[in-house]
Every structure is written in C-alpha cells, then in structure tokens.
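FW: tagging you since you asked about this chain on Friday. Here's the raw sequence from the shared folder, copied in full. Didn't touch anything.
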Amino acid sequence: MRILGIDRFTFAGQFLLFSLGILLIGMVTIGLWMQSNVKRAMIDRTAGMAALYVDSLVSPLIQDTPADGPLSSTARAELDILVESTPLDSELVSVKIWSPTGEILYSPNPDLIGRTFDVHENLVRAFSGEVVSGLSDLSEPENENERLTWDMLIETYAPVRSEGTGSVIAVAEFYQLPDELIAKIRRAQLQSWIIVGFATLIMYVLLVGMVRRASRTIRRQQAELLASVRELQRALDENQDLHAKVNKAAARTTILNERFLRRVSADIHDGPAQDVAFALLRIEHIAESTEGNGSGTREDVKSLARALTSALTNLRAITHGLRAPSVEGLTPCDAARRAVSDFGRISGEPVEFTCNEGFALGPVPVNLTIYRVVQESLANSFKHAGSASRQVCVTNSGGFVDVEIRDDGVGFDAGVDTGVATLGLVGMRERVELLGGTFTVQSAANQGTIVSARLPLVIEATDV
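HL: got it, structure written out here
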C-alpha cells in the first residue's frame, strides 16, 4: 500500500523518513525497557537495604522466639526502641513480624499482634528465602491502619533466618514512604531517556551524513547515466535517419536500375537491332538478285541471313528480358502474377500461383523487386531443375510481403558456387536487401528448391 504523498520525496528523503520512524520506535522501546529496569533496580536496592537492616538489627532480637509462640515482652520492647531509633526512621513508617502460619508476631499497632491472616504470595516467597519488595496500594486486610494515612507505600518482605541452622523462622515486613524513592526513580528514568534520546540523535545525524553522501553519489551517477542515455538516443536517432536514407537510396537505386535497363533495352532495339534488321533485308535483296547465278554464293548468303536472323531474335529476347513491364499502380500480388504469366507465355510451363487478399497498392521498388525475384527464380528452375512442378505463393504478413518460389526438381547445394545460377541468386539477394528485406534459399540434391523473400510494404517516397 502506497503512503499518501511519499512519492514527492527523493529516494534519500524516503529512506531518512523511514529510518527516523524506525529509530524513534527503537528509542521508545529501549527507553521503556530501561525505565522499567531502573524502577526495578531502585526498588531492589531499597529491598536490599531493608534486608541488611533485618539481618543486622532485627534478627538477633527474635532468635529465641518459639515457632508456635508470641514474642517476649522484652523482644517487643527492644523492637519498639529499635524502630523508633533506626537510621531508616525518616522513611520507615511501620514494621510487622510474621510467623510461618500467617500470625503477626509484632507490630507497632498492638491490635494486630496475635492476629492471623492468609499467607499471600509475597509471604510465601519471603519464607522461601527471597527478599520481595514493591510499591503497594495497601489493599491487603492487614494494611487497614496504613490505608487511613497513606495511599501507597514501599512494602518489603525480608526473611529472618536462624543463626544456627540458617532456616527462615520469620518474615519482617517493612513499610517505607515512597516519595524519595519515586523522585530517585524519576531522576534515573529521566537520565536514561536523555541518554537514549542523545544516542538516537547521534545515530540519526551519522545516518543522515552517510545517506547524503550516498545520495550525492547516486545523483552524480544518475546524471552520468542520463548523459549516456541521451548520447545513445542521439546515436540511435542518427542510425534510424541513416537507415531511412539507405532505404530511400535503395528504392532510388532500384528505380534507376530499371530506368537504366530500359534505356539499354531501347538502345539495343533502336541501334544494333535495327542495323541487323536492315542488313538482313539487304542480304535478302542480294539473294534474290543473284538467284540462278551460282548456288555457292546463294547458299552463303542464305547462311548469313540465317545467322543474322538468329542474332536479331537473340537481341530482341535480350531487350525484352532487360525491360520489365510497368508495375506502377499494382499490388504486390499483381506484380508477382504478371511475372508468373510472362514466364508461362515464354516457356509454356504451368505454374501454380496463390496469393491471399488484403494488399494495397505496393511501392514501385517493391513491385519491381518482386517481379524480378519471381522472374529469375522461375527462369533458374526452368533451366536447372529439370521436369518439375512449380509454385509461387505471395502472403501479406502485416507490414511485410512474403514471396516464396518452390519447385520439386533436382535441387543443388546452395553453398557451392555454380556460376551463372549463383550470380542470379546474388543479384536477387542484393535487390531484396537494398530495400531492407531478407532473402533465403533452401535446396539440396534431389530435394527441390525454395526461394523466399520478405520485403517491407512501406518505402519512403523518392524523387526519381
């Protein structure tokens, strides 16, 4: 559970706040414990003095008292004198001597002598040899006279031992005024609280010093970390800008390559192809004009005509291969379908084509690349795979288009350079990777070939 308003403090502030609470709890706990111990120690000290008084002065007077009999008149008189002249007279207000049966053997109040009361716990402990002392509210029946004058007295039970056997023969009960003792207890408790409070303050001051030092170190490290993060962010932004520029340059390069190939195609068609066609016409004219003038010359001319016809056919095929059809305003699916259609028209081989729906119009560089990858892959399959079935699959993969060309032909080792075929694969890979795509080839002997390309469907517009 979150503490209300704690979030507005720094980590160091929160730590100091919680540590202050913990130290205060510890201080109160230790102070109360010391207060109780001080009180107990002061009362025990008073009890010790009373016990010493009993051993030194009272005990000799009652050694000859029979176990089941009262004190002698002589012993009572001496006890009266002793009580009146005791050094504790300023604090001592009453004395009682108890027998093991609960009978009061002596008291300054003659009415209590010879009366028997219940043996309560403090008497039992005293008869067992223990000195018992504490503040009494005078609620016991034998305290009826004391209750008339005082609300509270210090009550001490001291065992009286036989000088011969050391056994407890009686218990002396002393009543003392508590005022001086309470004042001493309060002074001692106050001193203990001052010591505990001062020690807690010293610990907190030291803790504050350490936390502030650690906090400064943390803030310095945070500043360094933030500077590093900002530097890294700048590098990342620059890298993204560079990546965008590379993609834009790749798209521009793809379009420029196609324009260059179209220009080469046009130059070949309008130049060498026209010259060859004109030469072929002239040779046919020469052949017609020399008809019947010699079979050798006519045959030579016909051979030359056949060669030029073959050259013209090859030149036209080259120009057709260099020039891709217009793919503007098409979806990636339509671009791949056009490549499959052109291959089928030229080769006469069937190709199974599948494409899922949902494509928008594709960028021209992407459509051109799809067309070239499908065209080159099907041409390689026709040339090298032997009699095989072929499939082309185009899939919309959410921001990317996946193109897969598959055959079940003889296959090849994709890791071995096979000359022209390998050059074609390198060209396809470069086309795809220039646009930020990925290109893979999977093939093995007698296991067919799978050509896969993934291209982004969003390319920054170019100015070419």
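FW: The chain has three domains: 6-189, 271-323, 327-464.
HL: agreed, and Strands lie at 92-98, 104-106, 132-136, 153-161, 168-176, 352-355, 390-396, 400-407, 438-443, 449-456.
FW: great, closing this out.
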